Amino acid sequence: MTAAGPLIISPDALLVKLIGMPDSQALLWRGLLTALGFLAVLALRLRGAIVPAFRRCGLTGLGVALLFGASNIGFVLGNHYTRGGNVLMILAGTPLIAALLSRLFLHERQPRRTWLAIGLCLTGTSLIVLDDAGPGAWQGNACALMSALCMAANFTLCRTRPGIDMSPILVLSGVLVAVAAGMAGVVQGVAPMLPAPARAGYLALLCLVLLPLGFTLIQRGPLYLPAAEVSLLMLLETVVGTLWVWWILGERPSRLAFAGGALVLGTLLGKALLARHLERCRARSVQAGSG
């Protein structure tokens, strides 16, 4: 379930390129439309039990909404002010940040295989974005770091409420992003504008369908997995998103990028197979003990 989320949102970078709106306008529409999309997903899932779902999230849900919204703002502004490669390289550190936060606040110990997977995936992601990385602007790099910190903190915070689904609160996060973008537009003297018809279709596909579906699955991940594991699976977006840009826009990745993508995918697949093997071994041990 968690791995399906990054695969669904993988065209994000491609569609942002095709939409090509100024940052404040992109955030405004991204916030408004994703809020509607999350609400539609929630209505289909819960069929009328929306208010109780919000209540179960409690004050922790408010923190999740703020962190998720801040992560989205950091991602969009990071791509606006610095190189895309810098953003992706910094975001690749999210699993490491999540593992450290979980160890510090939740006292969750990660097995060695998880730390090894984090290191290999960091290396692989660095190879993917090496051609597009550089000094960049410090403002953009700082926004990307804010995005990584907030996403890792979001997943860690979700783990403090075991068994509580925090995905409904993403509706509020979209509203918060739209309000922040609207206020920024007022300060900058930029009036809200409708996207061009050609861009409107891409915007609707991204914000009404892909992001709500994908992030709903991702946000449910901490119900079943440690925060570091969820963050690791999000690196699938980087690999598959690079392939989308290559296929549609003809921006062919370098050989190093192919090698990096193979390293990330191989690491995640190997880790999943190993975890499955260990799970089966534990199940057999339990059965043997009960017998």
Automatic annotation (TrEMBL):
Signal peptide: none
Organism, scientific name: Modicisalibacter tunisiensis
Boundaries of every EamA domain copy: 23-129, 140-268
Keyword annotations: Membrane, Transmembrane, Transmembrane helix
Keyword match Ribonucleoprotein: no
Keyword Transferase recorded: no
Stored Pfam families: EamA
Origin superkingdom: Bacteria
Name of the molecule in the record: DMT family transporter
Residue intervals passing through the bilayer: 27-46, 58-81, 87-106, 113-130, 136-157, 169-194, 200-218, 230-249, 255-274
